[in-house]
Amino acid sequence: MKTTMNHPHGRMRFWIAFGAGSVALALVPFLTSSEYVLRIVTVVLFWVGMAGCWNMMSGYTGYIDFGPVVYFGLGSYATAIAMTKYGVPFFPAVVSAGVAAAAIAVPMGLTTLRLKGAYFAIATFAFAETMKQVALEFDRTFRVSFFEGSHGITLPISGLDNTFFFYCFFAATFAVMLIHYGIEHSKFGYGLKAIHEAETAAEIAGVNTTGIKLRAYVTSAFFLGIFGGMEAYWITYITPADVFNVHKTVQMVIMTLLGGMGTFFGPLVGASFLTVLSEILGTAFVEYYLIMVGGIIIVIVLIMPKGIVGSIKDWKGIRFA
Amino acid sequence: MAILECSNLSMYFGALTAVEMVSFGLNEGEILGMIGPNGAGKTTLFNCMVGVYRPTKGNVYLDGLDITGMKPHRICRLGLAKTSQIMEPFRAMTVFENVLVGALHGGRMKMAQAREESARIIELVGLADQAEKPSAAISVPARRRLELARALATGARALLLDENMAGLNPHEIDQALELLRKIRSSGRSLIVVEHIMRAVMGISDRIVVLNYGAKIAEGVPQDVVNDPQVIEAYLGEKRPSVVA
Amino acid sequence: MDTLFVQAVVNGLLQGGFYAAFSAGFSLIFGVMGVVNLAHGELIMLGAFTSYWVFAYFNVDPYLSAPLAMALLFAFGYLIQKFVINRVIEQPHIMSYILTFGIHLMVANLALQVWTHDFRSVTTSYSGYNWFIWGINIPFARLLTFFLALAVVACLWFFLSRTETGRAIRATAMDKEVARLMGVNVREIYAITFGIGAAITGLAGAFVSPFVIIYPEMGLGYTILAFCVVVLGGMGYMPGVLWGGFILGVAQSLSTTYLSAGISVAITFLILFVMLIFRPAGIVGKGTVA
What we know:
The complex is a heterotrimer of chains A (321), B (244) and C (290).
Chain A: H1 8-26, H2 28-31, H3 35-61, H4 69-85, H5 90-112, H6 117-142, E1 153-154, H7 162-185, H8 187-197, H9 199-204, H10 209-235, E2 237-238, H11 240-243, H12 246-259, H13 266-281, H14 286-303, H15 307-316
Antiparallel strand pairs in A: 1-2
Chain B: E1 2-13, E2 16-27, E3 31-35, H1 42-50, E4 57-62, E5 65-66, H2 72-78, E6 80-83, H3 95-106, H4 111-125, H5 140-153, E7 158-162, H6 170-185, E8 189-193, H7 197-203, E9 206-211, E10 214-219, H8 221-226, H9 228-234
Parallel strand pairs in B: 3-8, 3-9, 6-7, 7-8
Antiparallel strand pairs in B: 1-2, 1-4, 4-5, 9-10
Chain C: H1 3-33, H2 40-58, H3 62-83, H4 93-115, E1 130-133, E2 136-139, H5 140-162, H6 164-174, H7 176-181, H8 186-208, H9 219-233, H10 240-258, H11 261-278
Helix pairs in contact in C: 1-5, 1-8, 1-9, 1-10, 2-3, 2-8, 2-9, 3-8, 5-6, 5-8, 6-8, 9-10, 9-11, 10-11
């Protein structure tokens, strides 16, 4: 089996390709004058990052998380509340969103990661739905003004243009990809993959499975919180139904599944493909999109469980990154 | 000096008694054979020792330290590792990477050092020519050696080998025995569970016999094999396979 | 005793009987095949819609047309298992529930395309008919559904313990390799089991059509409820379905009455979450832990 990445030339080739691609991407705002194109690329970046967050946890460990949107939502609310009620400027607000999400992820991870398979999936989903209800009912129950329930929160108008947000999401997504690279080559990454394959055998071989799973889960939550904060500021208005919407989870799952779970390029391929596809179908065809997503999931599970990148890797027996 | 010791170890699963009041010690540099009919509790005993199960009663000591009920990865890092009867390689990884996991996590080495150590161990067990193959695609004898290599890479000083020679032909068994002797002379202590009498008799300094979860005999191979209780345990149940 | 409290408990029990009926199929499928059917709610939705359309076009009472829903859903479930789910049944379980999740998305959104977002309901002559016993209001339709639901669970129990096929199903659930050796066609049993599970779930959907709002996206909520019921009662443990149903029904009813509907939903999820973490084998502890 060729392992190009163990070969010094292979690694260099990867960095050249990835580096060139990143630089080209970073220059997009200057290469196009179309606000539409800029927005599309920003959305693609957003979903690559989001799918990447799901991949770094569920893709590599095989623990299928059906509730990642909860950290996105928590991040959105943390940023919105910080900015509207406490006058915190954007960047600190976003960072605190990540920190808040990560802080909540620690006890949540410790409790749920003890579960396996479908139980883990449903528990994480239940947690996400519970948080949505909390955001909706909290104020009314405790007679405070905090989450603002179904009215939602309106963030300060940024007055900033799409280019600013492009670079925000670019930076966050780039960080997520760097973490992927770290996973692919590190002790941590080998631990994750070992857990996926044979958790008990890994434990016996010295892998601190609880610690490693938690690390992946919390890191993923941190970045989800950051994406949530950025998105909140960009669209300016958030409600519980929006930011805790299971649809976002579905997107993360299908994009990673299609691209290839537990691979470096998986989220990139899957997110790009599906974002462009749904853009082509247009907002009038949201239902068609979901039908197709359902169909894609079925087809992938039956025929191509390793996704596009995973199947190519298998077929050619190589590693890309 | 006992590097590993079990004291009155018992394991109950509800109404089922899998292990009952088992006590014995593994001396430093010793190869201890463990035999007993299928279902005698040998695998359960091993699982209790490495922390996969928390024993219902009793204690396990490693180098005098009470490791009873500790988490498996901690026990591994303290120096006790095991191979599994049902082999579980990390299928998506290569042979080399499987061993690397043991070195990185169990042996707590940094990447460069872990790679070196893994290469060395793979050489030792004779898998060097298959190092880059996917671990799902190698033969049964190779997989057995991979299990062993992964356990060795953790740096464990005491190793529990659960039927590591199952499925090998006589020639392969001889090679395996040679390997075990090499491992012992590099300073490790082993408990070897096997059904192949020739192997166990040939390699063990002492033997422990289990039946229905309890220890029924312990001593040098000659004595154990002539022990009436041991003979009774095997006659009428599974005859130990004597490979000529 | 406080009438409001008793009313809430009665409502909860009535609801709980119904919960038990539509969760029995979910538990059966998991118990026999280890498949967590995330498209479960869609089976209820399809049953309810069958009932609705038959009522709308032919004016047949839903309780009378229920057998039709049962037959259609049996066919649907049987075919899905036979030709789709059976392909991944030997693989790690996560594959099967990702698969059923895909089926959920497809079916729910196809239904949305075909039948639109419109809310529908089945209003029979007796829809508003209530009984008052000791000051407690008992809607006739709900009471009828309650007894039918219990009858369905009882029939399923009888089927599994007394018939040849039922025994084959139970044998497969206990040890499929041995069942295979005994001559059981395991894949066929799987298909039949899924068919039966789908059938009784569709039946439950038909039973509930007189008093809930029917719409294509209604499924997901029911899937979660079924999961709650089954985790409470014990996955794969049939009698537990009744426990789980009643407990959940009463808990929801009490929290809706004394707190709010929104909090009731939060409490449902909280119960589920707490059960999964602390007692995944169910209240009585007889469930299978995944």
